[in-house]
Write a structure and sequence with these properties.
With 98 residues, this protein is mainly beta. It has a single domain, classed as Thiol Ester Dehydrase, Chain A, CATH 3.10.129.10. The chain is 14% helix and 45% strand. The chain is built from 1 helix and 5 strands, in the order E-H-E-E-E-E. A 5-stranded antiparallel beta sheet has the order 1-3-4-5-2, covered by helices on one side. Pfam families: ApeI-like. This is Hydroxymyristoyl-ACP dehydratase.
Length: 98
């Protein structure tokens, strides 16, 4: 597997079906949605699929409607990823690809 990297912007709209339950009256984007965005980006780029997540650190919340930027770098079967908003880290982590 060769090295690869990508960066893309995204937004989880306030109408997303998971938001009313996470958390009622003060919604935040669930971490699993953010990880799903990273996994989808890897698959779209043909970089592979997660076999396991090693470390994931959630540093701050993403609110519905806020624009964020995700980036990842693959080195062989290892991948490091990050999501930021206005230069501040929302999450960072690493994993292994199948």
């Amino acid at each position: 597997m060769s090295d690869a990297e990508a960066t893309e912007r995204f937004r989880i709209e306030p109408e997303h079906p998971s938001l009313p339950g996470h958390f009622p009256g003060a919604p935040v984007v669930a971490g699993v949605l953010l990880l799903d965005r990273i996994a989808a980006s890897l698959e779209r780029a043909g970089a592979g699929r997660f076999a396991r997540l090693g470390v994931v650190k959630f540093a701050s919340p993403l609110l519905p409607g806020q624009e964020a930027q995700l980036s990842w770098k693959r080195h062989g079967t290892r991948v490091r990823f990050r999501i930021e908003r206005d230069g501040s880290t929302i999450l960072s982590g690493e994993g292994e690809l199948a």
